[in-house]
Amino acid sequence: MKLFVLGVGPGDPELLTLKSKKILEEVSLIFSPTGGKDNIALSIVEKVINLKNKKVVSIYFPMKKTRKESLEAHWISIAEKIIKELKIFKKGAYITLGDPSFYSTFFYIYPYLRLEVEVELVPGVSSVSAVACAIPLSLSIADEKIAILPANYLTEKDYQKYLFNFDTLVFMKPYKNLPEITKFISNFFSDLKVYYVKRASLPEEEIYENLSQVPENSLDYFSVVIVKKEKKNET
Ligand SMILES: C[S@@+](CC[C@H](N)C(=O)[O-])C[C@H]1O[C@@H](n2cnc3c(N)ncnc32)[C@H](O)[C@@H]1O
């Protein structure tokens, strides 16, 4: 039994790799994780692959922040569901937004699959690359250091520590934490460039260079904030 875990990119179907496209054409079974938000991964695949003769199995992941232990039973049941289908189809593809190695729910279930299933990960274009290119911004050059941070898990002390130690901060899932991020960066001693990017690479993409100007209706789960220290010699 084999499961391909495909990073399908950040939204633009043209950013789906040739390798993922080839695998999606070959398999008859596709697992599609959902969490109550728009299913962008499946909408990317639908635009590139004819799903008419394929079985698409939805895999539900609760999006709330919960301790790992309390979700373990759910992850085991997802792994069992995947194994049951793979026993019939022998191979399948599990699609995931962006890149599978990067904040993907797949890794919650991986430990319960890997003893029975051969798993192959196929890289994808991550939202971080898509957001930086959309701005456009160099995330790092020469000696610059980047920190990629889950905004929904940070405390005020964290902001201070990371802003002192890194040149570029990338905040994932920042949409509920914009007030804290705005407050903290406004107290920082050095000049900063700040960007909020919603739905990079999709037609609904929006870019703001001032967090206080982000309208309420642009606060979106599919967004990233980038904070970069301004260098005096930068053009
Ligand atoms: C569960 S993580 C998945 C990350 C994904 N594996 C990747 O490589 O980009 C979901 C977060 O990714 C970011 N994200 C995903 N797609 C995005 C897009 N097209 N534009 C902006 N942010 C995006 C948002 O911060 C969102 O809350």
SSE topology:
Blueprint (H helix, E strand, L loop, with lengths): L1 E6 L10 H9 L2 E6 L5 H9 L6 E6 L7 H22 L1 E6 L9 H8 L4 E5 L4 H8 L11 E5 L5 H10 L2 E5 L5 H9 L5 E7 L7 E3 L14 E7 L6
Parallel strand pairs: 1-4, 1-5, 2-3, 2-4, 6-7
Antiparallel strand pairs: 7-10, 8-9, 8-10
Helix pairs in contact: 3-4
The structure holds S-adenosylmethionine.
How would you describe the overall organization of this protein?
- This protein is α/β, with parallel strands linked by helices and 235 residues long.
- The chain is 32% helix and 24% strand.
- It has helices at residues 18-26, 40-48, 68-89, 106-113, 127-134, 156-165, 178-186, and strands spanning 2-7, 29-34, 55-60, 91-96, 118-122, 146-150, 168-172, 192-198, 206-208, 223-229.
- It has a 5-stranded parallel β-sheet with strand order 3-2-4-1-5, sandwiched between helices. Strands 6-7-10-8-9 form a 5-stranded mixed β-sheet, with helices on one face.
- The chain starts with a strand and ends in a 6-residue tail after the last strand.
- It binds S-adenosylmethionine.
- S-adenosylmethionine (SAM) binds at residues 10-11, 96-99, 102-104, 126-127, 130-131, 172-173, 197, 199-202, 221-224.
